[in-house]
Write a structure and sequence with these properties.
By secondary structure, the protein is mainly beta. It is built from no helices and 24 strands.
């Protein structure tokens, strides 16, 4: 993981954190922020490029815990691969690569730009590869311009150019929790704003 390898179920939590750069795993569980999450991730994000053999996620490789008010953006919108799995891999998710029965996602989002993955636009699942967990994805959104491999675990599908509008994210608090540069940028956390590389922060 870009920040932590494995978050345990008991006492494992990450809040108001972020990761960027590159994560490469020779085997399973590659995540931009965490390789495996069995605790809780909140108010966090990843801008990292992620490559792995299986269970590859923009934010978390494999999750049996809670992910809330978090997001993943690919490393580049200009054609450089941001999220990659093996050619025959379907356990790739823009937010979470593989989610077990106890996992859940709340008020989160992810975006896949054209050519941000190894194949056209996106391979795998829009947000997560979901097991039989009842209603595991709530109030969450995936932005992409082509239909992913599977439509399960989608949350709400939206074109990329709708992901920079507050009206897309129904029920979200854009005063105290989220902020958005309407029509120009994607939702950002008030408590954990996105830092631009080279801005001195």
């Amino acid at each position: 993981g870009g920040l932590v390898g494995r978050l345990p179920r008991e006492g494992g939590s990450v809040a108001q954190s972020s990761a960027r750069g590159e994560v490469v795993a020779l085997e399973a569980h590659a995540g931009g922020l965490a390789g495996q999450n069995f605790g809780e991730i909140s108010s966090s994000y990843s801008l990292a490029a992620v490559t792995g053999r299986t269970d590859v996620g923009g934010l978390v490789g494999r999750s049996g815990g809670v992910v809330s008010r978090s997001y993943s953006l690919p490393a580049s919108s200009e054609g450089e691969p941001g999220l990659r799995g093996t050619v025959d891999n379907i356990r790739v998710g823009s937010l979470i690569g593989d989610m077990t029965y106890d996992g859940s996602v709340q008020e989160s989002y992810a975006i896949s730009f054209a050519r941000s993955t190894a194949r056209t636009d996106f391979v795998g699942f829009p947000l997560v590869a979901v097991s039989d967990s009842p209603d595991p994805v709530k109030d969450s959104y995936y932005g992409g311009n082509q239909m992913p491999y599977s439509a399960s675990g989608v949350g709400e599908l939206r074109p990329v150019d709708e992901m920079n509008r507050a009206e897309t994210f129904e029920g979200w608090d854009f005063e105290t929790v989220w902020r958005i540069d309407e029509g120009e940028d994607y939702p950002d956390l008030v408590s954990n704003p996105r830092q631009v590389q080279g801005d001195g922060q």
